[in-house]
Amino acid sequence: MNIGIIGAGTVAQTIARHVLPHGHKVMLSNTRGPESLAELVKQLGPGVSAGTPQQAADQDIVVLAVMWWHVQTALFSISDWKGRVLVDATNRVAGISPLSVGDLSGRTSSEIVSDLTPGARVVKAFNSVPMAWISDFTPSKPRTALFVSGDDGEAKKPVHDLIEEIGFTGVDLGSLAVGGRLQQLGGPLAGIRLNFVERFSL
Ligand SMILES: NC(=O)c1ccc[n+]([C@@H]2O[C@H](COP(=O)([O-])OP(=O)(O)OC[C@H]3O[C@@H](n4cnc5c(N)ncnc54)[C@H](OP(=O)(O)O)[C@@H]3O)[C@@H](O)[C@H]2O)c1
User: Domain locations in the chain?
Assistant: First the structure.
């Protein structure tokens, strides 16, 4: 799969390091242009490239990995969202040091992302744990649960499959309204580390 990422920071690099060994390609992007990412692209190795946010959005799936206060600008920089699978890894934070949660009283943060991207097939994923908890890139890492929510089952499937393929346990929580609220920062399933060591099969 060709995975575009709007953002090139902690989340983008963590996802890249997990998917690259499985043969996926990653395109990172930021506001400073592809040249500013040359060193990082070199460090991450084969399979990684840098592009503009629009080029990242043109990949098979695109991950949104920018700070909440940059979400609107980042989303509005894409010409047309219709039909794109948009993986929302953001959290609605008001500040990062110290970490404080933004206003969660109305629509969920991923519903807001969906409102800003008409026609996009939004899937919330990779937001519910600090990246430091999933920064073991070896095949023997624990199968940490990563939650997935979305209103479009066909869009959720490749994201869920990718999560399983790279060695985590994908847990589908339902819609952006219900599951999104559970897994978004401030919700009851955010910041929960569930490592599956054994699974009972029927
Ligand atoms: N870090 C974690 O452990 C973690 C875990 C779960 C969820 N999250 C959430 O994931 C999101 C990203 O977090 P992060 O830690 O990866 O942030 P980060 O390290 O600060 O990276 C943010 C990236 O976004 C880029 N960016 C900013 N505005 C942009 C725009 N308009 N278009 C394209 N790129 C833009 C920045 O590049 P330039 O400034 O150079 O343009 C930077 O590369 C946040 O919403 C955060 O709450 C973080």
Answer: 2-196
Nearest atom in ligand 1 to 30's CA: 34
Query: Tokens 């800003």 sit at which residue?
Result: 116
Q: What number of other Cβ atoms are within 10 A of residue 133's Cβ? A: 14
Whether 142 contacts 169, CB under 8 Å: no
pTM above 0.85, yes or no: yes
Closest C-alpha to 114, from 70, 75, 165, 78: 75
Question: Where on the phi/psi map is residue 110: left (φ > 0), alpha (ψ -120 to 50), or beta?
Answer: alpha
Q: Which among 6, 36, 66 is the best mutation to test ligand 1's pocket, defined by most ligand atoms within 8 Å of the CB?
A: 66
Whether 87 is in the pocket of ligand 1, judged by its Cβ within 6 Å, is no
What are the structure tokens assigned to 161, written together?
Answer: 């499959």
Tens-digit pLDDT profile for residues 38-97: 999 999 999 999 999 999 999 999 999 999 999 999 999 999 999 999 999 999 999 988
* Domain 2-196 architecture: 3-Layer(aba) Sandwich (3.40)
Tokens of 34: 């592809």
DSSP-derived secondary structure letter, 71: H
